[in-house]
Amino acid sequence: MLIITCFLAVGVGQIMGAEEHILVSWPTLLIMLPVLMKIGGDTGSMFGARLSSAFHLGFSNNIKDNPVIRNNLIAVLIIGFVSIVFVCIVAFLIDFYRGGHTPVLLLITVSACVYLIDVVFVYTMTIALSFISHRYGLDPDDTVIPIIASLGDLSGVVGVFIAVLLLYLL
To answer: What is the pTM of this model?
Structure first.
């Protein structure tokens, strides 16, 4: 699994290098980028760890009506949303202090787009990898969490550039 995470990390670096002009032209985005990259991976890893524990305890009967999956998904969604709002406020204050004029609503919009991409991609992959890991008897700490952390970085970086392009910020 380590080799997969290495390739994902290299891919993230290549994408960031290819789109460096976007990051340089909008310094506030550069302030927020590390956190936006990690929100999806970290909350996805928390979700994966909780799902894996639930599977080992026998709470994995039905994915559609499973309260464990639903409650944990709601919890990580709340954690992620609170995190992006906090990051936006901090980035706005840093930008304001250094003389910038980036509106806080624009920062929240970009962050919300990134988080929406993270939610759809990373959490879907978290559920799938947790089920696969449990079904084949693999240790989820060695499979789900490292891969989801790397996929979170990937979706965070790609999500930032997609959000910038969708919102026509450049």
So the answer is: 0.85
